[in-house]
Amino acid sequence: MIARGARGRVARLAGLGAGALALVTLLGGCDVGSAFGGFGWPEGGVTPQANRMYDLWIGSVIAALAVGALVWGLIFWCVVRYRKRGEQLPVQTRYNMPMEFLYTIAPILVVCVLFYYTAVVQTNVDETNNDPNKVTVEVVGFKWNWQFNYRDGAGEDANTVASTLGSSDVIPVLVLPTGRRIRFEETSKDVIHSFWVPELLFKRDVFPGNIRNVFEVESIDQEGAYVGRCAELCGTYHSMMNFELRAVSPEKYERFMQAKRDGATTQDALRAIGEEPLATTTEPFDTKRTVSNFNPSGGE
Question: Positive or negative, the Cα torsion across 289, 291, 293, 298?
Answer without folding.
Answer: positive
